[in-house]
Structure formats: C-alpha cells, structure tokens
Specification:
2 domains, globular, alpha+beta, about 15% helix, Neuraminidase, 4-stranded antiparallel β-sheet, 9-stranded mixed β-sheet, about 40% strand
Length: about 400
C-alpha cells in the first residue's frame, strides 16, 4: 500500500495539487478512508517537507475533511487505486472483469513484454506486435492461456525491409484480422533523436524507413499460419507515407516528429478492400483523423478518403470493429499520462459516444481486441509502460473488459 502511495503522490491530478499540501492530505484520507498518522513520514521523506509542517497540515486537513466533507476531491480514485483498475463512470458500458494471460515462451524478452503495441484474434489464435524489434508473434488459446506457437522474423516473410543491417525497429503499432487476412502497420513516423548528456533536446530527427510498413498476410489452418505476404512500397509513389504527405490537411505536419503532432499511425481496422488508418497524430484543430484507403486487387492504394472526429483533443491509439461500428481507443498525442477513453463511431459519421474512461492510472492503454471477434462480449486491453505486476518471466497479464448492454 505504501509503495502504491509513493507512486500515487506523483500522479495525482494537477488541479488537486493546486489545493496545496492540505489538499493532498485530504485526498490521501479519502484514499485510505481514514487516518494518516502512519503516512506522515512517507510524506516528509518523499516530498522533502519537514515533519512538523506535515503534522500541522495533517491536523488542518483532518479538520477540513470533517468540517467540509470534501470526499469529492478525488471522486473515483479510491476505487481505482485500491483495485488497480480504472474507475467506472455512470455511463460506462465496459467494466473490468478479470485478466488475460499471454505466454510468449521462447520469444519472451523484456523489450517485447514491455512494448506490446497491438493484438488481434483469429479464432483460437492471437497475433501480437511490438513497437520494438522486427517480429510478429502467434499465440494459441490453451486452457485459458494464450501460448506462443510461432515467432516470425518479418524479414523472412517480406523482402527488403529497410534497416535490416542495423536491426532498426519496425515500430509496429497496429494489427488487424479480417477473414483469413492478417494486417500489420508501422507508425510511419519521424522521431526526435535523444539528446546528448547535459542537453535538454536534440534538434535532429530520425527518419527511418523501417517504420513504413503496411502488409497483409494470407492465413491458413484456421488463422494460425501464414501462407503469403503482400506489402506496399516503403517510399515513393504508392507508399502509404507518400499518400499521407500528399493530403492537404496532413502536409503541413509532415516534417514534425511523432508525439509533437507529426504523422503517427497507431490504429488499423479492415473491411474487405477498405482499410481504416487511425492517426495518433496529427490532430487537426483538436480533431482526430481516420484515413481510409481503398485497396486494389493488386495490393495498391486505389483511392483514399479522410474524416475527422472530435475526441476532445485526443489522438487515436487503436481501432477495432464492433459490428459495423468502429471502437476507438483514444489518448494524448504526446507523452501525457492521460486522459484515455474508448469511443464508438459509425464510419464516415462525426458523432461519437464514450464507452469507457480511465481515471488516475499510471499505465497507458495501447491496444485492444475482442477475445472472440464473432461474439464481441469480452475486450482485451494491453498497456504501454505496464506495471511490473503484469510481467512475470515469459508472461504478460492483460486486462479483460466485459461489454454490457446499452
């Protein structure tokens, strides 16, 4: 509990911080549902505040709490942090219902387990991608656990992926299964180089072509094996990056890096020859963008379209289908800690409805998929910057959400 408090002190909402130390102490009392005496030392050590001031503020906070009953200071956070899950709001149609265990066996590494970015199910099989490395994993459901059956090196499936000599990561951010086809997509982004020691920011960008992959795999054996691969060019005419750069709305942002409102693909959903690309960035006048591609029989871009959604300034972090509507995982364009929400949208319509909101979490929802694409009753969510408790040896423990009736 005290360890959780250490982290919570740094993640508490900025508005609450502005209420001062007394406000924080009130929030802690709400969190614990009572006294604070055992936490005075933690407060003093963690925030560098003399213990006598902490004790004085604690008494003020206690009187203020009793006098004004300000239990709404952190509404929902007590439930969130005691259970380690997101707090549900009154209109929430998704509720936490357990977890999903993914066992990556011989493919497991900290780089993979800490950087899972997307998942898609095809029958009893689950395919996953990571934003590190150059691989694709296939897991099979066995006794309530998805266990690794194949670790694919993508250079063995797709010819001449850039960056093989230097082992550049593909930054795979999106994956989708449609019928007997599996699709994967890289971020197509530029990134700012890490600064030298003693320097806050580096003015240089990395423009790795390895991130520019959009590919389709033909599946066989009920969705567990790959038989054929198709992919777009990595640069020039016909490439997805070039198509995006030609768009009148996106063109002004092409030179920017990801997380600074540059091009950054994180969502993918497919229906027939229609491919829906969800952009984390750029957002246009605080509106998120979905870019639709119409693919030809020869696996080339035939035409494209775009539509904008008001997600409260958030970008798109993942897409999946819910019947004929799009389920949208949304979060900040940059590295902010929130908010994160799940929206529902009818393609080509601007209207959206909120299905779920996360409150006060330190992890970042990164990807979602239905555990049974035909039933669509249980949704799995994976996280960026996952809590240590999710990872054990070769396994990753994702969250399971149940969908309630409208």
């Amino acid at each position: 509990m005290i360890k959780g408090l250490h982290f919570w002190l740094w993640q508490v909402d900025d508005a609450l911080r502005k209420q001062g130390l007394e406000g924080l102490l009130v929030a802690i009392k709400v969190f614990f549902g009572g006294g604070l005496a055992t936490c005075d030392t933690v407060f003093s050590d963690r925030l560098g505040i003399p213990q006598n001031r902490v004790r004085d503020c604690s008494r003020i906070a206690e009187n203020r709490l009793v006098r004004e009953r300000k239990y709404n200071v952190l509404r929902g956070v007590r439930s969130t942090w005691r259970h380690g899950m997101s707090a549900d709001n009154g209109n929430d149609r998704l509720t936490t219902s357990g977890d999903v265990l993914l066992d990556f066996g011989s493919a497991a590494s900290l780089d993979l387990l800490r950087n899972l970015s997307g998942a898609a199910t095809c029958g009893n099989f689950m395919w996953t991608v990571s934003d590190e490395g150059r691989s694709l994993e296939c897991l099979k459901l066995e006794e309530d656990v998805y266990r690794l059956i194949k670790h694919h090196i993508l250079d063995d499936l797709i010819e001449n992926i850039p960056g093989a000599e230097s082992d550049d990561e593909l930054d795979l951010e999106a994956i989708a299964c449609e019928g007997d086809n599996l699709w994967i997509c890289g971020s197509h982004c530029r990134v700012r180089k890490k600064p030298e020691p003693g320097i806050s920011l580096n003015w240089e960008f990395k423009n790795r072509k390895s991130r520019r992959l959009l590919a389709r795999f033909k599946l066989r054996d009920a969705g567990g094996h790959i038989s054929k691969a198709d992919w777009l060019p990595f640069e020039g005419p016909g490439s997805l990056r070039e198509t995006l750069e030609r768009d009148i709305f996106i063109a002004p942002f092409c030179a920017l890096p990801s997380k600074e409102n540059g091009i950054d693909i994180e969502g993918l959903a497919v229906r027939g020859n229609r491919v829906f690309i969800g952009l984390r960035g750029p957002t246009i006048d605080s509106h998120a963008m979905i870019f639709e591609l119409r693919m030809t029989d020869g696996f080339r871009i035939g035409s494209e379209n775009r539509f904008f959604l008001d997600l409260g300034g958030l970008g798109i972090r993942d897409l999946t289908w819910m019947d004929d509507r799009l389920l949208i995982l949304a979060g900040p364009v940059g590295d902010a800690s929130g908010p994160f929400r799940i929206y529902l949208n009818q393609p080509e319509s601007t209207s959206v409805s909120v299905l779920h909101t996360w409150h006060g979490i330190h992890e970042k929802p990164e990807g979602l998929c239905w555990l049974q694409s035909d039933a669509q009753t249980d949704l799995m969510v994976i996280y960026d910057s996952p809590d240590d408790s999710r990872i054990s040896s070769t396994t990753y423990r994702a969250d399971r959400f149940a969908l309630s009736d409208a």
